[in-house]
Amino acid sequence: MDRKLQYLSNKDGFLGIDNKFNFKEKVVIVPFGLEKTVSYGGGTKNGPKEIIKASHQVELYDEELNCEPYKKIGIKTLKPFKIDKNINKALKKISSINQEILDKKLFPMTFGGEHSITPGCIEPFVKRHKNICLLHFDAHADLRDSYNGEKFSHASAIRRCLDYKNVSIISFGIRNISKSEIPYLQKNKSRIKIFWAKDKAKWNLQKFKKLIKK
Ligand SMILES: [Mn+2]
Prior knowledge:
Blueprint (H helix, E strand, L loop, with lengths): L26 E6 L14 H9 L13 H5 L1 E3 L9 H17 L3 E6 L5 H11 L3 E6 L19 H6 L4 E8 L7 H6 L4 E5 L8 H9 L1
Parallel strand pairs: 1-2, 1-3, 4-5, 5-6
């Protein structure tokens, strides 16, 4: 699928950067608003559009870095494209788009869309690197083997990522887990670390730093 990446104008893309400002991109935002297996409420298909819209209100100056990072990093946003409703086809598509971006030595950043897109998003990274550690911010562990008969459900998103043996996960803010996920969690303790919501006051971020360095 070698073709020129089709970008939105700077002004219409993520952060709404002035069109007169010219830069070479390093990061490519991929809008991938899949909405297929959602089980409570909906609207994930509007996720990318709404994130981009809201980003136009964000200040571009970073008070910690004392600069406007987009000028150094260079961020472009892909034009929206059609997303297949078939979950397997959708996963293949996001995987091949991210692969294409990585092949051009750029960094893809995907805006979803429901959680089920995650294994597709990470696939090219998983193939490229020896070890991948995912940071996961969620209320649910998403470690079910399947949900409503769907192995690629949003409720199985992290389980599908962990099907890749070189992937580990650090989950933050989990407040709900099902009984069916516990045996898998215990069996894979070395690859799954959970910072539970109920323990938030006691979270040890030093421990987190060590985990991420491993
Ligand atoms: Mn989730």
